[in-house]
Design a protein that fits this description.
Length: 613
Amino acid sequence: MRWRRQPEEKSGNDARRFNEIMALADHAARTGDPATIDRVVSLLRQVEDPHHPRWTGVLFLVSSALQKRFEVSGDVRALDGAIAARRQVVAVTPRDHPDWAEYATGLGLALKERFETMGDMAALEEEIASYRHALAATPLDHPRVTGLLTNLGETLCLQFERTGDVAALEEAITVNRDAVQRTPPDHPDQVTPLYNLAFALDERFKRTGDMPSLREAIDACRQIVTATSPNHPRWEGRLANLNGALCIWMERGGDAAGVDEAIGVFRNAVRATPRDHPDRVSLLSLLGVTLLKYYERGDDVKIMNGAIAACREVVTATPPGHPERALRLSELGTIIYACFKHGHDPEVLDQAIVAYRDVMAAATSDDPLRGRTLSLLGLALMDRYPYGGDLSILDQAIVAYRDAIAAIQPEDPDRTEVLSNLGVALEDRYKRGGEVALLDEAIALHREVLAATPPAHPKQARRLSDLGVALQGKFERDADVALIRETIAVHRDAVDGTPAGNPDRAQRLSNLGAALCAWFRHDGNLSILEKAITVLQDAVAATPLGHPDRPLFSSNLGGALCELFQRTGNVSMLEKGIAAFREAVAATPPDHPRRSMFLSNLSVALGQAARRK
């Protein structure tokens, strides 16, 4: 919109008309009344005089009225009129005028409305330029500077979001830091630049993995939460942001400094929230998840108990029939199961299994949570099976996996993993019952899973290893040389796909060694057994002392060494085998189901040594 002079309406009473226009414009800016705005525009056209000392002030008021009309009606033409008026005000006002920075800021705010409404990138760029001009025209000690920095910082964040411009992101961090530093810690206006700073730092971390940026983002989120009343409508969301940043920090191995303080924020939030407050449940859930992540860092039983207690209270506060009950039970089960993974206490695992069964009882038939929960239940049951070897638990795991596959859509990427887990469970069931159909189904499932797994997939090596174990079981039954050759090739691929230092490499080496031993027993070639021993020694060497799998790997090595002694009469092999068996026995608790096997192996080897004497 351009404001053009109407010569026929010139009047000598500009002062009276300006007073009338100012009063009407002020009313229009407050109410957005269309008739009043039209009247103001008509009057202003009659007295247009850019050189009049009150002209720019009146025109700016008119622009505010037009912007108010847009806010009330959504009429973009009114917004464009406001922008045009403000551009004219900025253009005709000298830059050294005390109100020029305010006019430039007003133009920026109107352009912000246009960008948010229309997605107009040109408006966003002009908005940024307006704030920069306003800052340049404002003394650094002026109270308006902080607000200008906040506006500019927020707009730069938007520019980065839309364009990916890294320079905009870095400037956003600098500008928002400046705004935060200029605002007193207890001032409510500090929250906006803190939020923008946390966002920008988090985006930098996502791009670069820079941990100091993430740490600074956590500090900003913590300050935001501290400055937010529990009654604020965004209280829960701000706690969730802090929780998310903390979880990533701990997952990436960040130090514990500051984490305790942030957890204290969650605890204080829970304490400050009445038991009947609707947000208390969400706060407890966030506290439980955060404590779980912290527990995974150090196995502190008190932290674990705190996480479980928080989630139990969440479940207790969620009555049967509540739409969130199944989800909250699932969170409880997941936290308890994660605690088992770190402490390996079967009683803790039993609690997780109960929680997952409760999820299934609470979930509706079409709840997408069913498939995921059935899969987790299968995993938990498979972990429970070795503690006592109860065959019914293994059967329940197989049923859970089959039900999970039926509940998960074929195109869901999680379905492949459930198929893989079912294959492993079927192998274990075959070993207990000898039903060949189960082994054949397991092999078919593993082949299907591998066919759906891209070569660079992070789980390809594990899935190759699973297929190799199943193929070896088939070879040991059928003595088909083609099967054992495929088994060894698959295990070698699994080892090659697992880099040194990977915690799974030792298991895959042990599997390869076992396959080579099986081939030796069929072929009788000593060079195959010697290769097996080398691989099994590598498996033991790659497993730290105290690792729960090391006794089994040592026992497997001891068996291969004793076989070599039986074929060659080399006593040193027998002695090494006895040493390996002794290590396996010494490292195995008295109540462990494998201890009797390790003792038996040691007894046989010692008997061979005694007969030699």
